Amino acid sequence: MMAFLEATDSNFEELVLKSDKPVIVDFWAEWCGPCRMVDPIVEEVGADFDGQVVVVKVDVDNNPGITARFGIRNIPTVLFFKNGDVAGKQVGAVPKSTFVSKLEPLL
Q: What is the CATH number of domain 5-106?
């Protein structure tokens, strides 16, 4: 199992926007049931593409700045970044294949 990087309002730019690899950003919260379903799927996708992609989690309760900046209203929301820009978005609990199909064009 790979470890998630925790992105915060203060390190988001460094971890995500300046990354030279595509970044999967999982917006979640402790109290969110569907987030717990998405968690292992995102982790698995990260492990499958280890070295090619960065996986980052954002706790929406603790990081209102980034959450508002990217207009996150429903969680789980997963954003796909490439070269500092949002290149894809997935809201809600979906199968692994959906995440992979959004990630692959970015690699």
A: 3.40.30.10
